[in-house]
């Protein structure tokens, strides 16, 4: 990807070296590395769930254990942070 579109994509881990390009995180493509899909249960004590949050929820008081299989239904019914996700679609350039 970087070879085909170096002006758009980078594998530089340093944010200062990215200069507005998309970071292709190759570090997640190794044994033992995982990415959890939104709303998926994690294999952790307490039934943790990978939950999207809004920016205003992100602070030092945030407790990840609050997002679990017992609380997720109520959270989604109250307000789904991804409810307007498709309103902000972007058109990507054709690189082919």
Report the order of strands and helices: EHEH
Q: Figure out the total of helices.
A: 2
Structural class category: little secondary structure
Number of domains: 2
Strand content: under 5%
Helix fraction, binned, reads 10-25%
Could you give the distance between the termini? 11 Å
Count every beta strand, where a strand is a DSSP E run of 2 or more residues: 2
* Approximate shape: extended
Q: Biggest sheet: strands side by side, in what order?
A: 1-2
Instruction: Please give the largest β-sheet.
Output: 2 strands, parallel
Q: Quick check: average pLDDT?
A: 85
Poorly predicted regions are: none
**Cα gyration radius (Å):** 17 Å
Q: How would you sum up this structure, described in words?
A:
The chain is low in regular secondary structure and 96 residues long. It has two domains: 1-28, no CATH class; 37-82, no CATH class. It is 11% helix and 4% strand. It has a two-stranded parallel ribbon with strand order 1-2.
Secondary structure layout plus pairing:
Layout: E1 9-10, H1 15-18, E2 22-23, H2 72-78
Parallel strand pairs: 1-2
Give a short synopsis of this structure.
With 96 residues, the chain is low in regular secondary structure.
Question: What descriptors fit this protein?
Answer:
96 residues; little secondary structure; two-stranded parallel ribbon; 2 helices; 2 strands
């Amino acid at each position: 990807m970087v070879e085909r579109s170096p002006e758009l994509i980078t594998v530089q881990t340093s944010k200062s070296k990215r200069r507005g390009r998309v970071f292709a995180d190759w570090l997640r493509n190794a044994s033992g590395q995982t990415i959890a899909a939104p709303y998926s249960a994690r294999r952790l004590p307490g039934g943790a769930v990978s939950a999207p949050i809004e920016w205003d929820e992100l602070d030092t008081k945030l407790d990840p254990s609050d997002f679990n299989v017992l609380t997720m239904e109520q959270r989604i019914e109250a307000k789904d942070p991804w409810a307007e996700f498709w309103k902000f679609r972007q058109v990507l350039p054709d690189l082919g």
